[in-house]
Design goal:
single chain, alpha+beta, four-stranded antiparallel beta sheet, 14 helices, 22% strand, globular
Amino acid sequence: MIIKKKLNVFPGYSVDDNKLNAIDGNTGEVISLLNQDKVYKYKKNEASDMTNAANSGLQNSNQKLTEEEIDAIGNVSKFITKEKASDIIKESIDTTNFDMTINDSSLSKDRINENYIWEIGFKDGDGKVDAKTGELLSFYFYNNKDGNENMSKSDAQKVAEQFLKKTAEEKFSQTKYEDNNNLKFKNISQDGNIYSFNFVRQVNGIDFDSNSLEVEIDKTTGKIIEYQNRWYDNVTFPDISQAITKEAAFNKINEYGDFGLEYNLTDNNKVSLVYNFRNLKGNYIINPISGVRIDSEGKTYKDNKLPEYCDISGHPCEKIVKELLENGYYISGEKFNPDSNITQINFLKYLYSPEQSSYSDDDFYEMLIDRGIIQKDEKNPESLLSNQDIAKIVVRYLGYDKVASHPEIFKNPFNDSIEYKYQGYAAICYSFGIMKGDNNGNFNGTSKVSNAESAQIIYNILKQNQSAK
């Protein structure tokens, strides 16, 4: 099954802290702050890791198709062959010193653009091509041999621009070069040998940061080693003719951001006095028409504060629930409802508290399915979970599903009988001290699990993970 994604493009005024810019307190000029984020250090012996990273980078919305899904497409003859796709990649770059032996290939579907993509893996890299139009979408190649050149950045930029005019002329004409100092997608430090050029899509004279053309060049060889074509083909951009001014937007953001003087690093050994938004964490976005703060999906922003439960005082679970809460694990709502049976969606969100808030419910489940925590046919958000249901989820979370799926190798550690297919899951949970059963040593596999019992289980999981470190 391929899940269709709805592309949501919305306008917004934002302060992006990845820009790393501020206003010099003395001159009033724009000044760049020191980027203290971690950067990826490229090493020759990490070439295969870089290839794997590239495979999961561009078009990460792609979903590889099974043979059955390919057959179901119908009229596959409308697609170019994988050999043709391979030739397109090879013809686009200087392949000298690259081993272009094909290791693997697959057909996938881009769930945003609704197009099909050939993904070709070579011994020294990989590339992607639109399976219908033949458009080159990306490639990444590494070279184990340093060259003797010392190409200047300006010459490298000319090479990048000539490549884009040849490869994606129409799209390139709709972009604007963004200097590396403000590169949003990544900040790369690769032994100082790589120039990275990013050209951001322009719509109504405004940056559309989600779309860009990026080219990377090894200055020691003068070769293009990476190309990324991030572009939404079928997208409608909202009208912004009634947008408030930048000054009005600034004032709205300043109500929260506290724009003022601060000391900040502008070089490794230099501290400068700058004007900056002192309270902003991450992006702060406002609707350009209403001036209301919105989130990353364009919806009205809701402050994600931790709950303060009003119904756990004196309950046996109080101490554990509060300790989990202090560590960012919680069930949303004013009440914890300790004695209510927990639903599938609430248990999974409780277990994945540190990251679940960044997903919609559908995307959250898709992530869980991708990680093998649940299977597609097991998705049932409002169902009430039993002990055996939770044991299976816990074991998958811990990464022991393959072992647990062989119940014949396990002995039932509980006093009551357990359905055979759950015996391995129950035994593993018991051995790790995560689920010990009731006071009589019974597992009670089909009994529903309360919110309070779920808190104890999740507490035991985290405790077990901590002791394993």
